[in-house]
Model the fold of this input.
Amino acid sequence: MRWLKIVLGSIVGLVIVGYGALWLYAQRATPLTASLSDRAAMVANAEQIIDLGPEPERWPVRLFVPANTLQDVADTVVGTQYRMPFGNVGAQGPEGFLVAEIEELSFNPTDFLLRAKAQMKVTYAPVTRTPWWGGATVRFVAEADILPVRGAQDDPEALYFRLVPTSISPRVRLGPLNYAATELLSQVAATRLLEGFGQNLLVPLPPLKASVDLEPGLLTTQQGEFPVDGSYKMAASFDGRPLHGEISTDRLLVVSSGVWLLGGLPKAPNQSLQPETLPRPTRREETVQAAHDARALATAARLKPFERKSSEAVGHLPIAPVLALASRDTQPTSSSASSDDYQELSAVISEAAGTLFRTNLARNRLAGDIDLAVSPASPDFASGRLSFEPPALEWKKGIGLTGQWAATAHGEARLRADLSSSRIGRTLGAELDVRGSTKAAFPFTLGLQLVQNREGSAIFLVPEIGCTRLAIDLHQAGDAGPLFATPWYTLQSIGLRFERNFGGVPTTLPLIDSKPRYLPFPAGDPRAQGVIYPADGFAITTVPRTLVIGEDGVDVSLSLTARSASNAEQAAFTAAREALLAELRQELPAKRCAASPRFRLLTTSGS
Done:
């Protein structure tokens, strides 16, 4: 009996040891050497960026997103699934799918690059057949490199990163289901499911963008009164070619402390970051690995200037693109475009009714008092325009752009003149066109201001034209002869001097604001590429905190957060942004320039 107990005990012990060995074997970390080409491409991308600009300050446009801030973006992909067909494919499709789902994703800074740790579960979703192990669930912890990826052809400016698994560690529980889970584990390894997940999962990153848009159109309207009686309305508008510009990032550099979004330097030849770019290791794998490791260490040393300890996102916006917008030299020189190559402020006086002037010209023994009344010949009686030359601007630290804006003013009007006398019972009337031009120089400043309240914050471009008095004389064109010639008085001509202050802040342009912006996950048929995202996209919120006008641009610090969002939320985001900007504009310091218009009559009497 004793020997039977010994035999049974030995068998149980062997089973426990064997089962434990099987469990420990299943728990081991499996290195994925197939990612070597991906990692080599990542190093090559870093080298290319460093060759263009070996330190952040060499990049005119730059935004650093620290790892802790980037975590918000990673959280939006939790719940993403990857479905890989499994089994024979028939008329109804494959027998089933292996489904991997992200349950947790976190970033881990390392000595060289930012890496990720993902916890995932893998299950089997049947279509026509369920294998005996089909009810099992296996959980993994995957270590992965973060690989920057350029946008596809339909969106070449988009920036993404994807996860390249470097090792996987299954988390298999002890118990009867362990056999089924072990079989599922073997299928996952055989199909390279997790590697496929890393190849196809793209996580978009929001580029740093600041747009400058000034379209032709109405700027302002004002009511005015004529010196004697009546009133008019003046409408001013911006005419000419629209001003459009965008300051943005187009490159992605991953370092151990976070991610850099960089732009503003000439584009190097586009290097694809897809894993197929470089050959996978062959029998010379050890030699290839050693060469890659040496190259990675050398690149890591060159990345040190890009490392940061800041817990906030920090960015730099250059002034050069704004200077380029103000210069006509940046516009096309073809004959088809030259006619639109101008910038003007135009003004139209409409709804005019009343009397501009009433004056006594002379006293005659025969005719008595000779009086002149001048009024608009029609409701739309005058117009003018200011044609601006490209300004000579200078960037000043702490202020912004300053300089002079030279302009030529042109004006024209149609007047009604009535000549009467106190003793002769009739009035002589005439209508005439007057026109003229003059030159003026306007001091100009383009500043930037950070405005904050309880609802949010925004950085505005604030152009200010120094309040300048402009006077223009309008006269009859050519030698038309006397306007009025009578036996008792001759009036050779009349004219009009119009004076007005021009200046102030015509408009303000928002650069960065604190309301959410929608960023979609990659488009296309998700089932065709296997990736099913948990939402349409995510909302990225960039809150400007500080603003410093530096030597060559603007330095800003930002608070960046992200959350899952649907495409339907875009309209609400836009409405919220417009409401915030309208409110913040009210809090900008008022810099008014009172028009103080004045009309003066110019006359030339006959001999």
About this structure: The two ends are 152 Å apart (CA to CA). The longest strand covers residues 428-453.
